[in-house]
Amino acid sequence: MLVFMIMAYSTDLRKRVLDFINNGGSKAAAKRTFGISRRTIYNYLETQDPLTCEKPGPKGPRNIDYDALQQHVADAPDATLIERAKHFGVSKGGISYTFEKFNITRKKDANL
Questions:
Q1: Is there a smaller number of Cβ atoms within 10 Å at the N or the C end of the chain?
Q2: pLDDT of 3 higher than 50
Q3: How many C-beta atoms lie closer than 10 Å to residue 81's C-beta?
Q4: pTM score > 0.70 for this model?
Q5: What average pLDDT does the chain have?
Q6: CA geometry: angle 95, 83, 98, nearest 5 deg
Q7: Do residues 5 and 18 make contact, with C-beta atoms less than 8 angstroms apart?
């Protein structure tokens, strides 16, 4: 089993890499000099503020209002998980987890 760890480089290293490239150094030379991947260098060059590091993980709200979700289920019983997730601004997994947590089951049609 392979395990990958994503670690952010220090702000100092990012600054040195960007200064190296801005002073005429090539990306390939920066890769060799600083021991980082070319993709990392391109990521630094493409971001608005390359000296900041965003932590990976959930973005946005983590809690779903149970009463609002119950009301949404009553108002739109045929809505999919993706539609509900867009409505609440969370992931599909978040909606699914909340359904499971509060024992909300999928509407089952006996005629099928």
A1: N
A2: no
A3: 15
A4: no
A5: 82
A6: 10
A7: no
